[in-house]
Amino acid sequence: MWCQRLLWLLRGRRGTTGRGWLWLPRDPGPVLAAPAHCHSTAPAPPCCAWQLHQDHLELSYGSTVMRLDFVWLRDHCRSASCYNAKTSQRSLDTASVELGIRPQAVRVDQSTLFLTWPDGHVTRYGLEWLAKNSYEGQKQQVMHPRILWNAEIYRQAQVPSIDCRSFLETDEGLKEFLQNFLLYGIAFVENVNPTKEDTRILAERISIIRETIYGRMWCFTSDFSRGDTAYTKLALDRHTDTTYFQEPCGIQVFHCLKHEGTGGRTLLVDGFHAAEQVLRQAPEHFELLAKVPLKHEYVENVGGRHNHMIGVGPVLNVYPWNNELYLIRYNNYDRAVFNTVPHDVVRRWYRAHRALTAELRRPHNELWVKLKPGKALFVDNWRVLHGREAFTGYRQLCGCYLTRDDVLNTARLLGLQA
What we know:
Elements: H1 2-12, E1 22-23, E2 38-39, E3 48-52, E4 56-61, E5 64-69, H2 70-75, E6 83-84, E7 89-90, E8 105-108, E9 112-116, E10 122-126, H3 127-133, H4 135-139, H5 151-157, E11 162-163, H6 164-169, H7 171-184, E12 186-190, H8 196-204, E13 209-210, E14 217-220, E15 236-239, E16 251-260, E17 266-270, H9 271-281, H10 283-291, E18 294-302, E19 305-313, E20 316-319, E21 324-328, H11 343-360, E22 367-369, E23 376-380, E24 384-388, E25 394-402, H12 404-413
Parallel strand pairs: 11-12
Antiparallel strand pairs: 1-8, 2-3, 3-4, 4-5, 6-7, 8-9, 9-10, 12-23, 13-25, 14-25, 15-24, 16-23, 16-25, 17-22, 17-24, 18-19, 20-21
């Protein structure tokens, strides 16, 4: 009986505009293999149209065409029995949802999708929520809004430094600082007391300090106290830090406490801007740099310190659903033996790496900054490469690494997209 009724619905009621639910059989069986899809008997609002397929609902809302699997629709139910709105946590046991589940009835009004499941449970979704949270909606969104820059773009933007007192004592100052940091990947705080302790207080305003093999707060001069080129007076080429960690440190803080000599300017390069140029000019290079995993390694046997760190990951890390870049892992000093791809990929990778390196080294991409006592610099280590020119004399620098999650958490609590 229900087969005949379903075919009647498909043939006789297709395209009608009457209100109501579309009721579906519990077990579609082989009868649905013939028609590719079925139409609703319920009215679709002007901005919304929908079709039921064998295993998913196709829903057009505004300019977004969503394809929502029935398992996904059941799993994300926001009813009180399936989701705890107070804790923003799922209560439903996902493993208990049948993979072949289909709704028994479907209805769409001007703003809401209603689904009744075989056990009688009703799920409701706001169409705006679905458009935002569907795969198709996510593809159209940017996770982290940012402004890509070279030296000229950054200078013309005239991004202000934030006064230390405003940064520490007001939400407005902190929010302005974080907005600058999120957009450009670097931000400055002025009038900081040139001490290690005051730098610590500054850092803890936005994040928990990440303790590493270098401790919590580090303070160094050119005494080669660690087995690292950074502890010398030599020039340092552009790089990101801690590429030899499985999760490279998210943010780095620099504060020059004293410099009695010449040189020592800090070099900053927007790695995302350089990668974007590679994507435009040679997308095959970008794709290879985003796929091939590399090993970076740090070996230390100096004094009583013994460390052997290995981090693995591609140079470019992207969100797969929208190809948005979120991390660059670039450090030619610490790159380990390249043995993660077969020989026929090796030369293609070197060609791609050289294309990125050429962009990173273009003079117009280089922003040079002289760090002086009282001026602290925050660097997004997942985006902006830093380096240093050679220097003379006594130079003392302090700083630390911050946990990226906590910085982004602080930004979101202030109403910023992060």
